[in-house]
Amino acid sequence: MLELFKDDFHSVIGTLYYIWKALNNCPEIVFLGNDRKAFDRYIEKLKIKFSDAELYNRKSEEVEIKISNYLAGRTPDIDLKPYFLTGSDFEKKIWLSTIKIPYGAAISYKELAQKAGFTRAWRAAGTALNHNPVMLIVPCHRVIKSSGEIGFFGRDTKIKEFLLNLENISKNKKIK
DNA sequence: TGCATGGCGCCGG
DNA sequence: ACCGGCGCCATGC
Question: Strand locations in A34-167, DSSP E?
Answer without folding.
Answer: 54-57, 81-82, 107-108, 143-144
